[in-house]
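Input:
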Amino acid sequence: MSPPGRPKGEYRSAQHEGIPVSPLVEVDGLAKTFDVSAPWLNRVVERKPRQFVHAVDDVAFEIARGTTLALVGESGCGKSTVARLLVGLYAPTRGRVVFDGLDTAGKGRPNSVRRRMQMIFQDPYASLNPRWKVQDIVAEPLREHGFAEGRSGAANDRQLVERVAELLQSVGLAAADAEKFPHQFSGGQRQRISIARALATEPEFLVCDEPTSALDVSVQAQVLNIMKELQSRQGLTYLFISHNLAVVRHVSDQVGVMYLGRIVEIASKAELFAAPRHPYTRMLLDAIPDIHMSGRSRTPVQGEVPNPLNPPAGCSFNPRCPHANERCRVERPMPLAAGAARVACHAVEEGRI
Amino acid sequence: MPDPLLDVRHLRVEFPTRRGTLVALDDISFSIAPGEILGVVGESGAGKSLTGASIIGLLDPPGRIAAGEIRFDGRRIDDLPYEAMRKVRGRSIGAIFQDPLTSLDPLYTIGRQLTETIQTHLPVGAAEARQRAVRLLQETGIPAAEERLDQYPHQFSGGMRQRVVIALALAGEPKLIVADEPTTALDVSIQAQIISLLKRLCKEHGAAVMLVTHDMGVIAETCDRVAVMYAGRIVEIGPVAAVIHAPAHPYTAGLMGSIPAMDEDRPRLLQIDGAMPRLTAIPPGCAFNPRCPRVFDRCLVERPDLLPAGATQAACWLHAAPQRAAA
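Output:
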């Protein structure tokens, strides 16, 4: 049933026997710049300069097989851009994306690589074609990647139907659901269809861009549980993008915190939540309303994310940071090892906090 | 307990459709004391926003109040004609909506929108109104309030816009503010700022708040009491701490269990299987019975009303038996 090329369970064995393996995904110096200049005529007539947004700058991380890296941050911090760069929806301006030893950045990544990574999008109402039956939606990647090719039409179709049924069952839907249209499903069920579609080509790596943000909490729990089950059953590797730290804490092994296009802190989950180092991470953790600590007084952080078109000099968090000094206002901090974490902060480096 | 500021009794909202009448809110009863913050929580489609809209008289047709009554400050307001209700809305009951971008008019300056609201509801002159507007903006933490008064909504960030919306809601010095998902469109750090601002200002102005949200965390931080809604009914209502730590209704318990917690590790989240029924297909008996882990015979045929259950009230037959034994 599996697409040709890779025996099932191969990626599991290495991890389960504890052999140190190279990470499945390696990202180094990744940057994406968008040109947001006014049209040529306006630039000439109104003497406007060219303008660029550095949506993602100098992002580096590794994801080991079978683990989950979560990227958190507020809107506009570049986390979704990273997701799109990884799956190849954007070409990076600079930097490398290495997938299983293959440099995949830039154009012309082979189909064999594309098949091995898939994406789950945020809005299950927008990411499924309303005119297609679930059968066609889930089977599309199979057709695209030449699953069951070279057989006669009828045999091919029968095999596709079987495979789609299997996929739907693996995410807790019924095989009969393949004959329905997306509008006949609730939001949580639609997100399961998205997951089934992403799993169709048996990918090793799933990029999930806010997969539960559009869902109600009880439905979110269903989807998160399914994702974790699939991970332990199939050894999947996830990049999980979210703004919800409680969700991140539940699903991830590693957490990267992004602010204005850069990773300001990256650490193991336990490390990050027990001993957050970067002032921004501390601020984010403090900002979460916690249901079990009602009545706790917290100091809401002042200020807002600055305009990415005109980011502050030095550390981009310095205008909001309680520990900022002269150095923070002029020199951009580099990510440095701090214990088991990597933190980009002068105050942490100097031991001021 | 003092006389309630807002008293909703057996409210029923219906939507007549070609395929029959949909009952969107069924027998909703609750009250809010002066200065109290009541949270209304539930999943999408539970009817929480509709409850807010009924109170401020902004129910979209063809929706209509079919039964029950809403009393505000001892006066019935659900049957007021449109013009009379316009005077109540804004003056006695302020409203804050989810999306700060669409609740402001992009064509008018912030100052004009504020002074217009103030002058509509309070007998003050233009100069006095402007002064009040500046003071309101300062209170909501907008820096350089004087200058920003002459700016347009697009010149404000999302968090700043929501501050302006809060200033607008407070402009008529209302006794009650209905806030419908005021922080849902905002980032967490901004959300924390807005929540503490709303809490502080309502305390200072002595306004009660009905806070509609789907975020249990926000409820826990902000509210005195909370009402949990499911499929158009209140399934549990009580003090926040009791509802969160000792939920009496299986739905509330499931809801609490499905929220990933910050202070404990669980390999799996509790989940409530299935989804909330659509209004066209609400099952007989208790609406939660197809998803309920503790369902029994009575739940399938008879619909429970709110029954005392420890510190809270829950619409669940599990709490009926001991009650009878005691009586």
